[in-house]
Amino acid sequence: MDTDFRSRYTFWTSIVGGFFTWLPTFTTQSQIQRYNAVPTLRESRLTLFFNTCGMILIMLLCSWIGLILFANYYNCDPVTTKTITSSDQLLPLFAIEVLGRYPGLPGLLLAGLTCGSLSTVSSTLNSTAAIITEDFVKYYKPDLSEKQLLIISKTISITSGIVSFALVFVIAEINKTVNISPFSTMLHGTLLGPIFGAFCLGMFFPISNELGTFLGLISSIFLTAFTGLGNIFAGLAGKLPDQRLSLRTDGCTLVNQTGENIYEFEKTLTAFSRFSDWKQMHQQDSFLLKIWSISYVWQPAVGVLSSFILGLAFSSIIAIIQNTPLPKVNECLLSPHFLKFWKMLFGQKYLNKMVDFTSPLYTGNSAEKFKCSKNEIIKKNESTTS
């Protein structure tokens, strides 16, 4: 139950940090497309529920694999012995050592990893092409025909695929000095976190406006980029706490083809004990270095909350400076639970100044008050099938 934000893996980083890490992932364009692929809102919620159950199982299995790797290599660290160059290579090394004697199984593992990666990449490329085509190409070129839009969309998808393939070589170079997990989480928190915070701001607060949300989004990106890049460069300089578990190499042996022991590493050179005393060693760190030492798992939470809070602050300041009535927000674009909360807090009369309750999608029936989006989805699918 360690509450130090610099501790990489604790109960709080797993529950709270993990919540903010995965939450933006389920609101991306590629996920929204999946929700819209089913005919009703109820089925969308069911797919999300089953997906969440599957993700919990996958994370438990990943944690179990991590324990197995530590138990297997705790007295023979492959990174220290230069068997591998990065801890990201531990799982492939373990798979080769365990499954290498069974023909086909290492290839099957590699095929599974590749298929999982390709399914994610394909949906991402598809959603990227859809976003650019719908939000930019159609906006600036509304007269294009469907055939022209199809060609442009395919061109965008191909170009994005080439760029993502080229980034593989960039990541390979980065992985020589930086572990992929902290680096990817830093990118995730710097980009997806602030975007998700901006969407939450729009759904929860009718006072939020375009300029205030944009300023909050940009400020949050700069803040998370500053903390994330600072963490990476401070780590490369060896200034961050080393929180790895104690590892040894006294269990390592080099064996020739006949199975004879050629060399055994000296025990006195390999007994590392870093994990227990890192806080004492870094008590005198500067404030900036302590900020950079915050666990990378908190990066998405910083992005979400800073975008939300700064966007709300900027929106309030802009509303006060302009001193003019803000455009009303359609009630269907706001969270129904927060609408009830604002009504209890400020009253219906004040809420009418900020929220448009006269939309054609508003039924007026209390039992169907917030079903406008659901009814629209059903109607759209019925017209498509007919």
Quick overview:
The chain has 386 residues and is an all-alpha fold. It contains 14 helices and four strands. Strands 1-2 form a two-stranded antiparallel sheet. Strands 3-4 form a two-stranded parallel sheet.
Can you put this structure into words, describing what you see?
The protein has 386 residues and is mainly alpha-helical. Helix content is 63%, strand content 3%. The chain has 14 helices and 4 strands. The chain has helices at residues 11-22, 29-36, 41-73, 90-99, 105-140, 146-174, 180-204, 210-236, 278-281, 287-292, 299-322, 336-346, 348-351, 372-385, and strands at residues 253-255, 261-264, 329-330, 355-356. It has a two-stranded antiparallel sheet. Strands 3-4 form a two-stranded parallel sheet. The model is unreliable at 255-273 and 361-386 (pLDDT under 50).
What's the arrangement of secondary structure elements?
Elements: H1 11-22, H2 29-36, H3 41-73, H4 90-99, H5 105-140, H6 146-174, H7 180-204, H8 210-236, E1 253-255, E2 261-264, H9 278-281, H10 287-292, H11 299-322, E3 329-330, H12 336-346, H13 348-351, E4 355-356, H14 372-385
Parallel strand pairs: 3-4
Antiparallel strand pairs: 1-2
Helix pairs in contact: 1-11, 5-6, 7-8, 7-11, 8-11
